[in-house]
Specification:
233 residues; mainly alpha; single chain
Length: 233
């Protein structure tokens, strides 16, 4: 793995560990639950990718440095939130929403391109459809596992342009790969940027995929805010 993709792996691991830990805090979990949720979110997508492409045991078990990073980040998030709440009270919801959004976005972008890179490294002759699928499932896999363990309908199925952003990023990377003289690293940067841009635009402009409203009210506690917008700084 080159330096660029190693950087993506660290960025994605830290971002998704923050995302998982924040969701655990929102769900009033104890320290163990927060650490486990951060760990599963950070390494879950990569494990799913490796199982799909047949790379077993998964890289997270062969080289557990990402698991260690995730646990450390989860502990830091726990300590930081405890400290902040002691100083400024409980009025931190908006900051937590913004932090969760950007952590989710960075993790999604990083693991989408890592999924494609990992599939190509394992089998350079993989078809475009396979690469697209592996990239997307790597990007969204950790978030799905996080939400299932947190006891809520996965975020990817409910709000914001999430899976669609991953599909766009994977598509951009795959379109850039055949360009003459363009390295995989530059193609990955293009896909990474595409995910981030679409996610931010969707949050600012309140873009969402159409859905049918059941008419039933959402639970008052535990879930994310009823609206699909994220408070942006």
């Amino acid at each position: 793995m080159g330096t660029v993709f190693l950087t993506f792996e660290i960025i994605g691991t830290v971002a998704f560990a923050i995302s998982g830990a924040m969701e655990g805090i929102r769900r009033d979990m104890d320290l163990f639950g927060i650490l486990m949720l951060g760990l599963v979110t950070a390494v879950g997508g990569g494990v799913v990718r490796d199982v799909i492409i047949g790379y077993t045991p998964p890289a997270a078990f062969r080289h557990p440095y990402c698991a260690v990073i995730a646990l450390v980040v989860g502990a830091v998030v726990f300590a930081a939130v405890c400290r902040i709440r002691r100083c400024v009270g409980l009025k931190t919801r908006k900051c937590m929403e913004v932090l969760l959004f950007f952590a989710d976005t960075l993790g999604l972008a990083a693991f989408t391109v890592l999924g494609i890179e990992g599939a190509l490294r394992f089998d350079a002759n993989s078809s475009g459809a396979v690469l697209l699928f592996v990239g997307v499932i790597t990007g969204i896999g950790g978030g799905i596992l996080r939400d299932v363990l947190a006891g809520t309908v996965p975020f990817v199925f409910r709000k914001h342009v999430y899976a669609l952003a991953s599909i766009l990023g994977a598509g951009v990377m795959l379109l850039l790969l055949p360009v003459a003289g363009l390295s995989m690293e530059l193609a990955a940067l293009g896909g990474f940027g595409a995910v981030i841009v679409l996610r931010i635009l969707a949050a600012r402009r309140h873009w969402n995929l159409p859905k049918v409203h059941s008419g039933q009210e959402q639970p008052a506690s535990g879930g994310r805010p009823a609206g699909d917008s994220v408070p942006m700084p």
